[in-house]
Amino acid sequence: MAQTNTAIVSGAARGIGAEVARQLASDGLAVAVLDIDADACHQVASEIDGAGGASIAVGVDVTDEKAVTEAVDQVVGELGAPTVLVNNAGIIRDNLLFRMTLEEWDQVMSVHLRGAFLLSRAVQGHMINRGFGRIVNLSSTSALGNRGQANYSAAKAGVQGLTKTLALELGKFGVTANAIAPGFIETDMTRETAQRLGVSFDDFKAAVVADIPVARGGHPADVAHAVSFFASEAAGFVSGQVLYVAGGPTS
Ligand code: NAI
Q1: What is the Å distance from ligand 1's center to 103 Cα?
Q2: Ligand 1 pocket, residues with Cβ under 6 angstroms
């Protein structure tokens, strides 16, 4: 009988991460719903369990080295060694360069890059032992540059470099690494952006959608389906790639 795959999804308490967790559970994986918001993690995990899936909630700050190691140990003990990792946890601290504080720069770098590094390093040994692993990292179209996001766009470009290096180092052990770079996805994160800009979410969305070739906003499920592909056993010859999930080509 095939062994069960176990996924860790960071930032899975809401938005894209929560949908990715639900998708992977419905694909038959056991899922660790990991987020700094422990209470919200429990809600997503109980929803997955209620739908017949297997999951646990793990409240952890991905920037905390010790907590990340303990969290991965907990997953190994309760669900089995992780074979899929989705580095999705993220924050925005937008500001124009001249107003951006060092704290805003450091916080964004830390959650996206330090967090993805710590989790990838903590799971890679388990994947290598199994001779199988899938790492999927959330980048963004902002990696190509975005006004007001010097910190975030640098972090999301960094995620692409990290992904390609993981693909190079881990490929021979049966482990692939790929990045997904979404465009505009309707979540609390983009609602916060509208709020910061002082416009209603509907107006913000209408302005963004005007430039999206498929003429709609993205949904967490659009990203979750792409993760599902990269996480699948059948995707073993696809590694080090960046897939833009943005409703059209990016430039
Ligand atoms: P969101 O803000 O709705 O959810 C992010 C989750 O990450 C939250 O549950 C939050 O508690 C968690 N988180 C934040 N800091 C953490 C930490 N230190 N440790 C553990 N968990 C932490 O965001 P959304 O929209 O679901 O985005 C998910 C990912 O997709 C992020 O990496 C984001 O940068 C990326 N993305 C989102 C896009 C969008 O349009 N919504 C577009 C492109 C990329």
Answers
A1: 18
A2: 10-11, 13-17, 35-37, 61-63, 88-91, 111, 115, 138, 140, 182, 184-185, 187-190
